[in-house]
Design brief:
The protein is α/β, with parallel strands linked by helices. The strands form 3 sheets. The protein has a 4-stranded mixed beta sheet, sandwiched between helices. It has a two-stranded antiparallel sheet with strand order 5-6. A two-stranded antiparallel ribbon has the order 7-8.
Length: about 450
């Protein structure tokens, strides 16, 4: 009996070791497998902040609760996920946005890296880029708090209704209350539908009115460019004309035709951007042609004159201070550069408003796409800081109506917090560091912006 007992005692460590190996084998996949996007999305539909169990050391429960409470109090559609460093990044933003199905701003802290994407209807892409860049290199809680504070000040839309009070299972709500709520929903459904239709019609009417205001100005631009073509008096067969000159002239003619066609096809203010972009291209081709005919060096590709794009490509930058604003460098033509150097006022493009003639930058948000086509989104915000148009562009309401392209109305009609499911622009989301078309290049291929994914 003692021999048997000794044998069992000696085998006990081996048995425990075997059991430990079995336990580790059983639980290891669960400990190392990444949390599914569906799980994260489900959590974000219930609360604005999700912290993965494997990343709990980055953000405490109290810190996460504070962030979530601030977002809810602001009633804005901001979603934050804190994930472990090794979490798969391919299509993360796109998949998360699809699984969540809610229009908004999505921010992800992944290890010590941080990035964000947003639907254009709630925040312009350049604004997202600037927000991300401004918080790089900070500790998790500081970074997410700073990002949240700055984003909430500019974010459009409202928080999703799924963040409302009460638990998901309806505990604490009486059956009678649920029946009453259901009755109200049924009775109010027709009224809500009518309200949506009325708002949609109003939005369409506002688009048409904005386009009508722009049409007068754009037609003036097209006419002015046609007059420039006539004054040029260039004939492809004239003595001294070469293939390069003829190519310049053909590009200018094509730009003129394109501008007229784009304007004829325009259905909303956002369509005007293509018109003025074509005119800007055409004027640069004319500047090249003039230089070739006069045997001068070819001009550098520069933005048009800030004060009036009809002046043609700028030749230098000059310091200018708008009324009530701060000094800034703006691109100017030779004539306006001389006026400023002499202490005179530049020849400013004015347009009709309900308050009389005003510079285009003080004429209202409808001129955003008009200016954006001439100057492009990259330099325009800096030029317009401190002006009425610049102020409208940075406001959440403007972003919600005109999108990220200084004139792009949202085509889907979804505002922040709306349940849109998979109906969203995939160009607003993408791989970390290579997608989303966020500021890093053209054609939808953006680069890593300031330490993002």
């Amino acid at each position: 009996m003692k021999a048997v007992l000794r044998t069992r005692t000696r085998s006990l460590p081996g048995l425990l070791l075997a059991l430990l190996v079995i336990a580790l084998t059983a639980f290891a996949p669960q400990a190392t497998a990444a949390t599914g996007v569906s799980t994260i999305a489900d959590a974000l539909r219930k609360s604005p902040v999700y912290v993965d169990p494997a990343a709990a050391a980055q953000l405490s429960t109290a810190e996460a609760d504070t962030l979530a409470r601030g977002i809810k109090d602001a009633n804005k559609p901001l979603f934050i996920a804190v994930l472990p460093a090794g979490y798969p990044t391919k299509d993360l933003f796109t998949d998360l946005r699809t699984a969540t199905g809610i229009t908004g701003l999505y921010a992800v802290r992944l290890g010590d890296r941080f990035d964000a994407r947003a639907d254009a209807s709630v925040l312009p892409r350049t604004a997202v880029q600037n927000l991300v860049t401004s918080v790089q290199g900070e500790t998790a809680n500081t970074q997410l708090t700073d990002f949240t504070d700055r984003a909430l000040a500019n974010l459009g839309g409202k928080a999703p209704s799924s963040w409302g009070g009460g638990s998901a299972d309806g505990s604490g709500v009486s059956s009678a209350a649920l029946i009453t709520i259901g009755a109200v929903v049924v009775v109010g459904g027709a009224g809500a539908y009518a309200l949506v239709r009325r708002n949609r019609r109003r939005h369409q009417e506002e688009q048409r009115a904005a386009l009508d205001r722009l049409r007068v100005v754009v037609d003036e631009d097209i006419t002015a460019f046609g007059e420039e073509l006539d004054r040029l008096d260039f004939h492809p067969a004239e003595p001294g004309a070469d293939d390069a000159m003829r190519a310049d002239y053909e590009r200018a003619l094509n730009a003129y035709d394109q501008a007229k066609q784009y304007m004829a096809d325009a259905r909303g203010p956002e369509d005007v951007r293509g018109v003025t972009q074509a005119l800007e291209d055409g004027r640069f081709s004319l500047a090249q042609l003039a230089a070739r005919r006069e045997s001068r060096p070819l001009p550098e590709r520069r933005p048009p004159c800030f004060f009036d794009p009809r002046h043609g490509p700028s030749v230098t930058d000059a310091t200018w201070t708008p009324a009530g604003g701060s000094p800034r460098e703006v691109p100017v033509c030779a004539a306006d550069a001389a006026r400023l150097a002499d202490g005179r006022d530049p020849a400013i493009r004015e347009v009709d408003t309900e308050y009389g003639r005003r510079p285009y930058w003080d004429a209202g948000p409808a001129y955003g796409p008009w200016a954006g086509g001439y100057f492009g989104g990259g330099i325009l915000p800096g030029l317009l800081i401190g002006t009425a148009l610049g102020g409208w562009m940075s406001a959440p309401a403007y972003a919600a109506d005109y999108g990220s392209g200084y004139g792009d109305f949202t085509t889907g009609g979804y505002q922040g917090g709306d349940l849109s499911g998979a109906d969203f622009d995939p160009g607003d989301f993408g791989d970390f560091g290579g997608g989303g078309d966020f500021g890093g290049g053209g054609g939808g291929d953006s680069g890593d912006f300031g330490g993002g994914f």
